[in-house]
Specification:
By secondary structure, the chain is α+β, with helices and mostly antiparallel strands. It folds into two domains: 187 residues, Ribosomal Protein S5, domain 2 (2-Layer Sandwich); 128 residues, Alpha-Beta Plaits (2-Layer Sandwich). Helix content is 42%, strand content 22%. The chain is built from ten helices and twelve strands. Strands 1, 2, 3, 4, 5, 6, 7 and 12 form an eight-stranded mixed beta sheet that branches. A four-stranded antiparallel beta sheet has the order 9-10-8-11. Helix 3 packs across helix 5.
Length: 336
């Protein structure tokens, strides 16, 4: 059985959602796909093709890795480490999620298991690749062991794993990948929305130099004042109303306001700001869709709303950005 976990785009509410403000997000047709099968040796084999990684670890080695990561995360909380110091390499997130599953459910693995993961979600670009990878793995293990778990348990497992990657996860990526569709999230409650049908495009500006965790840490001081959070909330609510009404002009206005706020907190590099400005000159709107960046010139995925596709293609060619085909995904994590 192959478990598909979709990636996501945040339509509004980046960063602000970490501090309890509302957000709009949509699952998209890019997936992390995981399978769990029997491994003949008494080891856990990890084959992660997007990371070009294939290796076997003993159960003892996985236990030690999990405990080391937990200790380092506690030291991050105390301020002894930066968040990027908690995981030594990206593959450890998958290995930590695997070990956490068995610890949380108090299950002893008595034989070897092979975990295979393939993903076409761009990594480090704000599309929720970490959340999708975590959920695909823990779902694959649960199906392999024939264990029925409620969605909230998968969410809790995912949140603990995501924290060691991002520092303090809002849980938004996990919610979207878990449930699919489009959703408005406020005060911990999820409200389903119709998947937008407006002319939206996803532009990849490149992998940011700074991680999501570093961006979250860097902008935290902005949200100590209530004003910026209230402004993000107002923009998200305006975007929600505009999308429900399928009002293109109102959506464009909301995205432009959102871009201004994201630039103000310092997560939109100058080159990406120039690109957004050119989109606006062409009567469209654009904004980053993830954590953005606090260093370098790349900011991951940018959401563009425009009815002039040829102008967008010309701008992307000039900036050497790629346009990725994307549609909304109504399904959350599912078995194929």
């Amino acid at each position: 059985m192959r478990v598909h976990a979709p990636g996501k785009l945040i339509l509004s509410g980046e960063h602000a959602v970490v501090y309890g403000h509302p957000a709009l997000a949509m699952a998209v047709n890019r997936y992390a796909v995981a399978t769990a099968t029997l491994e003949k040796s008494p080891h856990v084999s990890f084959n992660l093709s997007d990371l070009s990684y294939e290796h076997k670890l003993s159960l003892c080695a996985l236990e030690q890795l999990k405990n080391r990561i937990k200790r380092k995360y506690k030291r991050f909380i105390k301020g002894d480490f930066k968040i990027r110091d908690v995981l030594q390499k990206p593959v450890e997130l998958a290995q930590f999620a695997f070990s956490l599953f068995f610890e949380t459910l108090n299950i002893k693995l008595t034989h070897g298991v092979k975990i295979q993961v393939q993903s076409d979600i761009p990594m480090g670009c704000g599309m929720g690749s970490s959340a999708a990878t975590i959920l695909s793995i823990v779902h694959a293990i649960a199906h392999y062991l024939r264990i029925e778990l409620p969605p909230e348990m998968f969410y809790r497992l995912g949140l603990e794993a995501e924290n060691v990657q991002h520092g303090f996860s809002s849980g938004l990526d996990l919610r979207v990948s878990l449930h699919g569709g489009c959703m408005y999230i406020k005060d911990g409650e999820i409200y389903s929305r119709s998947v937008p049908t407006l002319p939206m495009y996803m532009v990849n500006t490149g992998v940011p130099e700074s991680s999501t965790g570093e961006c979250v840490t860097a902008v935290a001081h902005h949200f100590k004042e209530k004003k910026i959070g209230q402004q993000f909330s107002a923009v998200t609510d305006g975007m929600d109303i505009a999308l429900q009404a399928n009002d293109l002009l109102a959506v464009i206005d909301a995205i432009r306001e959102n871009h201004i706020l994201l630039s103000r907190i310092g997560v939109v590099p100058e080159q990406v700001q120039q690109f957004v400005g050119d989109i606006e000159q062409a009567q469209g709107a654009a904004k980053i869709c993830g954590a953005g960046a606090v260093s370098g010139s790349k900011a991951g995925i940018v959401l563009v709303v425009t009815d002039d596709q040829s102008a967008l293609e010309g701008l992307c060619a000039r900036y050497q950005y790629s346009i990725l085909p994307i549609t909304g995904e109504a399904r959350g994590v599912h078995v194929v």
